[in-house]
Amino acid sequence: MDANNCELVGISFSIEPTIAYYIPVSANQTEAQKIIDLFKPILENENITKIGQNIKYDCLVLKWYNVEVKGVFFDTMLAHYLMEPDNKHGMDYLSETYLKYTPVSITELIGKKGAKQGTMRDVEIEKVKEYAAEDADVTLQLHHLFKNEIDNTHLHKLFYDVETPLITVLADMEFEGVKVDTDFLKIYSEEIGDELRILQDTIFDLSGTHFNLDSPKQLGEILFDKLKIPYEGKKTKTGQYSTDEEMLQKLVHQHPIAEHLLNYREYTKLKSTYVDALPSLINPKTNRLHTTFNQAIASTGRLSSVNPNLQNIPIRTERGKKIRKAFIPRNENHTILSADYSQIELRIVASISKDENMIEAFRQNLDIHTATAANVFGVELDAVTADMRRKAKMVNFGIIYGISAFGLAQRLGIPRKEAAELIENYFIKYSGVKTYMDSTINAARENGYVETLLGRRRYLRDINAGNWTIRGFAERNAINAPIQGSAADMIKVAMINIQKQLKHYKMQSKMILQVHDELLFDVQLSEKENLAEMVKKEMQNALPLQVPVDVSAGFGNNWLEAH
User: Fold this and answer.
1) 281-320 as b/e: b if 16+ CB within 10 A
2) Is 495 in a helix, a strand, or coil?
3) DSSP 3-state assignment of 182?
4) CA dist 95 → 56, 103, 422 (Å)
């Protein structure tokens, strides 16, 4: 249920285990507001702790009733997310696991998701009362179990200083939403439609026949049986050829049809997932798009988003980037500000590994990929070619994901021996990085987990597995999790501090989106310069690193222009 487009049916609460209360709320909005107003002094009292399961949702719903929930929060979902990041965090799972109690399922009351699903308004009050009161009681009991684990372990600071204050920041952003240019999307949809038709005709010409482009089975037969392209790979469980993106990328140098197929897939996904879908997700009450940020999904600590998933908007191609043009300021008195961390993961690598060459490159404000190329290939900076830099860039980013010589060779299209030499030279010049990788894997084997700069743990239960494939995957996670997790923690701290400043100075500008290492703002023109300066400062100082933190910021009439 969309928290920005629903209404309260009732309120349940519990202040001692096994006892809970339920107050029905009228469908009449005037009457409903009267009931909510009775609770407003408690909900807005900063001295009263609020306990909830996914409390952001409740905060967001209550915003529509003019209530700003305040006080110290304890979210059982987030507590468990920090305790067991790789497990489920839903209430039913937590109740069954920790309380050995199976709560009433919502599907018993309103049916399964789909067109025939009912609403809580349709359910008799006795059943709603039992369901809602049980939720409150279970949440309180879970709180009593989890609080000790949070308060008396390494999780205390991360929970109370990062994840908990982030709840209200995200609720504010989700409530605010962003304006979308539907006229642009309509034109863009037609453009992509025209290009898809041209691509389809080209593919049919190259294959010499018409077939269903969206059928992997038919496509496999065309590529490997009809066109006789050599097939290097395993067939699927049903005996079909694999035609996924990875396979098509391998075929690019073997037959021109592969590139056209990759383009066809990219354009099809852009059109269906974003260009045509975004207008349908606009909230009828606000005429704005309100994404939902998931705080307890990615085990690395990164935020994700749904409806729409803005983290997955393709940015590697011009076609994908163009979708950002649809995100615009609220009116002519506002502009969009994009603030983006530059190469933050590599800066964190330099800081964590304490590698002198890497630290020096960042301190001198050198292009890190050019500096790496100069070191690895043994040439002066001004002698680095575009191809050297391309290879160095792939090594830089590949290393933090534990890339192998085989993987690097595939991505760069070079012999495996050359890729192995590249990695070997890299580790000679950046010995601190090699030491970090080895010591991190050893620590993971000993402790069973790795940690970010703020103590967020990623548990690696397969780090000592006998199967080398499974163990290798865990080792790559061991190397990457502290880096990616620290970057996630860093932008979360920045968001919290920025929101504090926005509220303290009563600024009219709003933080509206977070996508990976980037923050987006809907900025009142009179606040432009002050806001950009404040945002950059807070992002740069969110976590102290041993290298300078670079933040690029730009304004524009849309997200694409600003970025």
Assistant:
1) ebeeeeebbbbbbbbbebbbbbbebeebebbebeeeeebb
2) helix
3) helix
4) 20, 7, 51
Q: What is the pLDDT of residues 97-155, one digit of tens each?
A: 999 999 887 777 767 776 666 677 777 888 888 889 999 999 999 999 999 999 999 99
Which helix (H) or strand (E) covers residue 292, if one does? strand 292-294
Contact call for residues 516 and 300 (beta carbons, < 8 A): no
Which two structure tokens, joined as six digits, stand for 487? Answer: 């970057």
Residue pLDDT, tens place only, 324-361 = 999 999 999 999 999 999 999 999 999 999 999 999 99
Element (H, E) at 524: strand 518-524
Pairing of strands 73-75, 50-52: parallel
Phi, psi (deg, nearest 5) at residue 303 = -80, 150
Strand partners, 341: 551
**12 token code pair:** 């349940």
Q: Which domains does the chain have, with CATH numbers?
A: 10-177 (3.30.420.10), 180-289 (1.20.1060.10), 304-341+489-562 (3.30.70.370), 345-487 (1.10.150.20)
CA separation for the pair 10, 1 (Å, rounded): 15
Q: Which residue has the tokens 């890190």?
A: 368
Q: Which amino acid is at 204?
A: F
Cβ contact 381:366 at 8 Å? yes
Three-state DSSP class for residue 5: coil
User: By the 8 A CB rule, do 462 and 473 touch?
Assistant: yes
Positive or negative, the CA dihedral 174, 289, 12, 84 is negative
Helices and strands, number each (H, E), in the chain? 23, 16
Burial of 446 (0-12, 13-18, 19+ CB in 10 A): exposed
Query: Taking a C-beta distance cutoff of 8 angstroms, is the pair 478, 516 a contact?
Result: no
The strand ranges marked E within 327-405 are: 327-328, 334-341
List, in order, residues 6 or more apart from 222 with CB less than 8 Å away: 207, 209, 211
For CA atoms 422, 427, 429, 430, give the dihedral sign: positive
DSSP secondary structure string for all residues of 116-130? T---GGGS-HHHHHH
* 283 beta partners: 288
Q: Per residue in 485-522, pLDDT tens?
A: 999 999 999 999 999 999 999 999 999 999 999 999 99
Show the tokens assigned to 353.
């590994």
Closest of 319, 190, 204, 323 to residue 261, by C-alpha = 204
DSSP string, 224-270: IIIS-PPP-SPPPTTSPPP-SHHHHHHHTTT-THHHHHHHHHHHHHI
Task: Report the run of H or E that residue 447 belongs to, with start and end.
Answer: helix 431-447
- Contact (CB, 8 A) for 43 and 156: no
Rounded to two decimals, what is the model's pTM?
A: 0.93
| Short-list 91, 97, 92, 62, CA closest to 78 | 91
**Do 298 and 481 meet the contact criterion of CB atoms below 8 Å apart?**
no
**Pick from 7, 70, 15, 57: which is nearest to 36 by CA?**
7
